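Thread: "does anyone have the structure for this chain?"

Original post by V.I.:
We have the sequence but no experimental structure in hand. Need at least a predicted one for the grant figures.
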Amino acid sequence: MLTYILLFSVSLLTAFFNLLVVISISHFKHLHTPTNLLLLSLGVSDFFISFLILCQIVLIDGCWFLGDLMCALYQYLAAIITAVSVETMVLISVDRYVAICDPLHYRTKITQTKVKICVCLCWFGSVMYASLNLKDNMNQPGRYNSCFGECVIVVNYIAVVVDVIIFFIGPITVIVLLYMRVFVVAVSQARVLRSHVAAVRLQGSVTVTSKKSELKAARTLGVVVVVFLICLCPYYCVALTSPEGRTNASSADFLLCLYYFNSCLNPLIYACFYPWFRKSVRLIITLKILQSDSCEANVL
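Reply from O.Q.:
Generated one for you, tokens below.
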């Protein structure tokens, strides 16, 4: 019962947090920026993951009673949504890299049109990849089940390796490299600012501010990378070492839930650190967004 309550609570929180992100960015016109469009895509994919967590509740006792078709559809949607979530995180890291490391050309390199195209490509590519990877399971749902009430999918081992490279090794490599570069630039800028202000004899107060900025940058980037690794590493490590890529959903509940739990943390990591999110949430909770001119409110 405790497991049921825990998973159900995580599902509700995931849906609630990401719904706030989606409503905020969609409703307020001042939030229609390239970066926020990526957060919107991430929020949409993570919102649907809350429904996948509910499906995991069905599998707690190891019995799937929703039928073979729903089992195949669940695995299909899980592949699409999780892939979109990971790809969007990579796009966000690229966006932040350009914004911090090349701020003068940010507006020309990162535009809303380019971001919309990239987001559409992420969703379309994820749908095509999932369709090819789970083609046999979708054509004949339940073909790999050994008994009634089982929800099993089987993919080629090569496909599992490709999946690990595309959605685990590749994204982690890109995110770590970009964030390391961002951190180096942030630290160097803080040192330049400290040296510049020291020339006007304000070195004491600025030193403290610079150190706080360095620690804040290190802490924020560290949380992003560490949480991403903690949530994704166990699932992909087991998937890569499983014989013949065979995964029984009833035996992988914990790994999948940990994987999905990252979607509950994404709004806290990518959105809650922004002041505009707190302001928009306040307007949403107080129902002020129902006013006719609320979309023009300046929440920045």
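V.I.: this helps a lot. The chain has one domain: 2-296.
O.Q.: and Confidence is low (pLDDT under 50) at residues 201-208.
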